[in-house]
Amino acid sequence: MGAGTSSAQNVEIALKAIDASIQILTLLIKLVQEFKSRPKNSIAIEENYVEAVNDARKSHGIDSDGYFNFGFAGRVNTGKSSLINALRGMKDNDPGAARVGITDTTYNVVNYSYPDYPYVKLFDLPGSGSLARDATTYFSDLYLCAFDCLIILTEGSIGEEELQFARKARSYNQAVCFVRSRCDQDMANLKENCVIEEINEESISEFIENTAEYYKNQLNMNAPDLTQVPCFFISSRSMYKFIRKMPTMLYQEAEFLKYIVQMSLTRRGQL
Ligand SMILES: Nc1nc2c(ncn2[C@@H]2O[C@H](COP(=O)(O)OP(=O)(O)O)[C@@H](O)[C@H]2O)c(=O)[nH]1
Ligand SMILES: [Mg+2]
């Protein structure tokens, strides 16, 4: 909180933040009900992309009319598998959980279903940017245009290859977003280095504000065509607790979920 901010102003800011969170959560709860049943509509694909998208779906064994499909792409170690586990309310060592911390980059695409949402599938894609995976052909090799929404996990900054994936996704009119996971580790480092005193709502929101500004500037400078692609700052640890309805400090887990749910429903004309 800036110097000179009165306690009345602090309370007002905190109340506004709580109000915004309640609004997001209320909307999220409402939207998520749609995922309890089969998609009502197909995704409309532009005529010149129909063949490529159908090929991509076939290659992943995707039934796009019967299921909502979300793809998780990005470099090795960015937290794709951990996020999928958290979204499924699973610990990394639970039976059936995605394998975490695996440096072997050659394993295949694996899709995971959702215990409470049988019509949702989450696709864990092999990491890009390794010797085993050529970044220039990653998008086409892995048929990344097949999903309702492509979620690109990033590291501290958005690299050229992530920009290319997002650009390609947009050329197919596919919903896409960047996600910077592992933010709890950043916060722990800041505390360790005495940059912040405590990890609390205030320091988290300041961290998100600063990091979001940095990402926005990066996009403005390197990819002005992609400034509409949102970036969410999250932690899979917080996501797990959020999904399990356990108390936790949140980063942008609710905003991220709201976005992907909303994009999928919009593409299917269900919103
Ligand atoms: N603290 C923390 N560690 C994470 C988080 N997400 C992933 N990790 C760790 O980062 C490493 C790589 O995660 P993984 O999900 O396997 O990344 P992937 O290669 O992109 O699938 C593992 O050691 C995870 O435990 C997170 O949100 N917080
Ligand atoms: Mg993985």
TrEMBL record:
Give residue ranges for domain IRG-type G. 66-252
Pfam families recorded for this chain?
Answer: IIGP (PF05049)
Enumerate the InterPro entries for this protein: G_IRG_dom, Immunity-related_GTPase-like, P-loop_NTPase
Give the Gene Ontology MF terms in alphabetical order.
Answer: GTP binding
SUPFAM superfamilies, per database record: P-loop containing nucleoside triphosphate hydrolases (SSF52540)
Q: Which is one Gene Ontology cellular component term of this protein?
A: membrane
Q: Which Gene3D superfamilies match?
A: P-loop containing nucleotide triphosphate hydrolases
Q: Which family does the record claim for this protein?
A: Belongs to the TRAFAC class dynamin-like GTPase superfamily. IRG family.
Q: What is this protein called?
A: IRG-type G domain-containing protein
Organism, as annotated: Acrobeloides nanus
